[in-house]
Specification:
heterodimer; A: about 260 residues; mainly alpha; 10 helices; about 75% helix; B: about 300 residues; alpha/beta; Rossmann fold; Alpha-Beta Plaits; five-stranded antiparallel beta sheet; 11 helices; 15 strands; about 35% helix
Chain lengths: ~260, ~300
């Protein structure tokens, strides 16, 4: 009960904050662009809408930018913004003098971030679906796709991408809690991502936690080329990183000498 | 019983500089304790240690008779605090700010409206806290400290930035909370005149040392000890010798003679004797130390 109340309290804090807008904007970005493109090129899409692999093509088209950079960037920004709600308003001291254990505060805030990530996935999938069906409603030459939606594949791929994101979330949360200056976690996050992309052709690039989504997408879409397939299960590796980063983040948070 | 007690509380921010040196603070239940000291004296450090915002290095902290560290969550349930500047979420309204705390403290939702009315912010409606004046932000912060009906209030310079009318309102509010609800209040300030009309007890800290701790009457009696009389004459040396014949030990300060406070009859007799010895007496006056002077005397001791 204590934890639920703490979570509700944390959830309220993000109302009207940049972090809450980021969820909507991040999830809607790619589907909106695809939708606009389809509306603009509606006359040339009849074959696509009649094809048997319509949904898989749409999936690859929408997830390409999402898996490679939008999700990592969004998580880097969201984690920073959630911590900044406290820094900017000078409220850490208020929060730490409420009758809550440090573990409760830490995990309630972390759960807000996790739920926001779930929100992004849900909104993104809805957006992806709408980007396919809205042109059908608007243009007579684009009937509703006859190809069946591969629900099981989508669900599994969603879960995989979600797990791939967890190490980024945990490490960015750690950085955001430790540094008052917003630029430190954001800059570090972007630096790690750019470093990773530069090292994508390296045989051990799968060890970099910020690249799991990218590698996952490239393998599943058949674009991994001649690179060596990771010998480990990426999602398992992501969960291990996630646990390690979360434990480290919690220890650093609890042992911080000044809490406000 | 002491509501707050610290024993040999010592804190260093760096190896070379002690922010607090063996501070033994004792705040009795149902009192208003004014914690005074100039900026950088150690007031906020002490309050942050009491609230667990700083990791304790040396000494003991007891709140409601229990060691704070072991009973942190249970103890904080009964404390309302405001440290330094107001801590409020600017993108939210006053109501929403209080709703966040109401969830944590699990107090009735109608309590939000009650405290908003108490501090005069009930009509702010949808206005975001970031658009509030500093005075309104301070009042919202005080509302936040009162939401859960605490039995102890810890307020660090709560009247900072308030106009005289605002200061008066806060003073009256705190007095009524103490008198009607028995709430213990620990309030820090660097200005004695600001809180001397409010507090029952005083602690004076400077450079990490607690220099005075006692009731307000005890501090006032220090004022009487520090009061003296001045005799302004044309010959301070001879006049001092004559005054010494009355069994007093006068001292010469800036060409005048200073003595302890004297009875009217003694003053008249001294004056008569000085005139008899052809000493011209220009002025006899009584100099009383005000509390502010005592405060500066204490911190410069």
């Amino acid at each position: 009960m204590n934890f639920i109340n703490s979570f509700q309290s944390e959830w309220l804090k993000k109302k009207r904050s940049l972090a809450s807008w980021l969820v909507v904007a991040g999830a809607a970005f790619t589907p909106s662009i695809i939708l606009m493109s389809r509306i603009k090129n509606a006359g040339k899409l009849s074959a696509l809408y009649a094809s048997n692999d319509f949904w898989l093509k749409l999936w690859n088209q929408t997830w390409e930018s999402m898996a490679v950079f939008l999700l990592p960037f969004g998580i880097i920004l969201a984690a920073g913004l959630i911590a900044q709600i406290e820094y900017k308003n000078n409220t850490w001291k208020q929060l730490h003098t409420t009758p809550q254990g440090f573990a409760t505060i830490f995990f309630a805030k972390f759960l807000v971030l996790l739920i926001m990530l779930v929100e992004v996935f849900v909104l993104f999938n809805v957006g992806m679906y709408l980007s396919a069906v809205i042109p059908s409603m608007l243009f007579a030459n684009l009937p509703y796709p006859t190809a069946p939606i591969p629900y099981a594949y989508f669900l599994k791929a969603n879960i995989n991408f979600f797990l791939d994101c967890l190490p980024i979330l945990a490490l960015q949360y750690l950085l955001s809690l430790q540094f008052k200056n917003f630029l430190v976690p954001i800059g570090t996050g972007f630096a790690i991502w750019f470093l990773g992309v530069g090292m994508l052709s390296w045989n051990y690039s799968y060890l970099l936690p910020y690249l799991h989504g990218t590698i996952d997408f490239l393998i599943s879409s058949g674009q991994f080329g001649n690179r060596k397939i990771p010998p480990l299960n990426l999602q398992l590796l992501a969960v291990i990183y996630f646990v390690l980063f979360t434990v480290a983040s919690y220890i650093l948070y609890v042992t911080k000498k000044e809490k406000g | 019983m002491h509501c707050i007690e610290t024993i040999n509380l010592t804190h260093n921010f760096s190896a070379s500089e002690a922010a607090l040196k063996c501070v033994n603070l004792q705040v009795r239940e149902s009192t208003i304790y004014g914690f005074l000291g100039p900026n950088g004296a150690g007031k906020t450090t002490t309050l942050k240690l009491i609230l667990g915002l700083l990791k304790k290095q040396h000494g003991e902290i007891f709140v409601f008779g229990k060691p704070f560290e072991k009973h942190r969550v249970e103890t904080l349930r009964h404390i309302g605090s405001m440290i330094e500047s107001p801590s409020i979420y600017g993108q939210l309204t006053a109501f929403e700010n209080l709703r966040i705390l109401q969830k944590v403290y699990r107090c009735p939702k109608q309590r939000i409206q009650e405290v908003l009315e108490l501090v005069g912010l009930a009509q702010t409606n949808r206005k975001k806290a970031s658009q509030f004046s500093l005075g309104m932000k301070q009042r919202l912060s005080i509302a936040m400290t009162l939401l859960h009906n605490p039995s102890l209030l810890i307020l660090d310079e709560p009247t900072n930035g308030l106009d005289p009318n605002g200061i008066l309102e806060i003073r009256e509010l705190l007095q009524s909370l103490n008198q009607q609800h028995g709430i213990t209040i620990l309030i820090s300030s660097h200005l004695l005149p600001e809180i001397e009309k409010l507090v029952t007890h005083v602690g004076i800290i400077n450079r990490g040392n607690l220099l005075f701790q006692g009731t307000l009457p005890e501090l006032i009696s220090k004022r009487q000890q520090n009061s003296f009389m001045i005799f302004e004459t044309n010959d301070a040396a001879r006049a001092s010798h004559i005054i010494g014949e009355f069994g007093l030990i006068p001292r010469i300060e800036a060409g005048n003679i200073a003595t302890p406070i004297l009875e009217k009859e003694v003053v008249a007799a001294i004056n008569q004797k000085l005139v008899q010895h052809d000493i011209e007496v220009y002025q006899i006056s009584r100099v009383e130390s005000d509390l502010e002077k005592i405060f500066f005397d204490v911190i410069s001791e």
